[in-house]
Amino acid sequence: MVSTDQVTFTESSEKEKKQEKKEKKEKKEKKEKKEKKSMKEKKVKKSKKDKEPVVTAVAAVATTTTTTTTTTTMTTNDASNSSTKRKLDTPPSPITPSATKKPKKERIPWTKEEDKRLIALEKLHPKRWSMIAKLHGGKSRVKRHENDIRKRWTTILDPSLSHGSWSKEEDDSLIALVEKYGVEGRWNQEIQRELEGGNRTGKQCRLRWECVLDPAVAKGEWSKEEDDELVRLVGERLKKGETITLGGWKKISEEKKEGGKRTNKQCKRRWLKFLDPGRKISLTAPKGATRCTYGEKVH
């Protein structure tokens, strides 16, 4: 039989063991916390030590140069204020057109050999422009884009196109089509397709209307008032350093008010042939020189 004293002794021994285990765990946790704290403190001390020499050096330099910096800061502040005033007073530099515009590609003129080869290839492969472009440009030849080849064929080399002077039937048909459709973006569409009496391109129709058939365009001699106004409009652009392109001549023709409406071609031709001071030509033009006929007869 087990006595009560023995039972109480075993219970007390188990309790003691449990307490010892708890104490050991607590000690381990405390040690781990202390180690972590010490590691953090060491890291902080190292970072401070690394920064301390730099700070001390800066402080030493600052103490030695306090008198000099006070004088130099005053002068630099004055200089900065004057420079900012200058920057505000001076206008921003204008953007040059050469910096914004892309350089234009060199236009290579067509040769007779290229035209003959294009005519021969179009007979073999009618209107297959991508294939014609590949066959047209060889190793020793100029490589043309298919759009350039198509344009060359449809505007110049196509044998079905009408060239030379316009007939009365063509003029009457063009006048009727302009009255029907207008002139805005219609030259290469309805007007070209429905023109009677010949096969003309949209450009031919447009030039014929603007230079010969348009009743609003003045086709007589240029008056002195017209010449003076044209000289003034061109001079304003040349003083600004502008190069007058086709769009520039169109604006000049729109701004011009004296003597009736003139086309951009008429204004350009009048300036280059008779009014430009760089060209030593008198203002007295021969008969028919002021007409915008482009080698075509006026009925």
Shape: elongated
Unreliable stretches, pLDDT < 50, 5 or more residues?
Answer: 54-62, 64-73, 84-89, 280-299
Helical percentage: 55-70%
N-to-C SSE string, H for helix and E for strand: HHHHHHHHHHHH
- The tally of helices reads 12
Q: Which structural category fits the helices and strands?
A: mainly alpha
End-to-end span in angstroms?
150 Å
GO molecular function: RNA polymerase II cis-regulatory region sequence-specific DNA binding; RNA polymerase III type 3 promoter sequence-specific DNA binding
Domain Myb-like: 102-157, 158-213, 214-275
Biased composition (Basic residues): 24-48
Biased composition (Polar residues): 1-10
Spell out the key features of this protein.
299 residues; mainly alpha; transcription
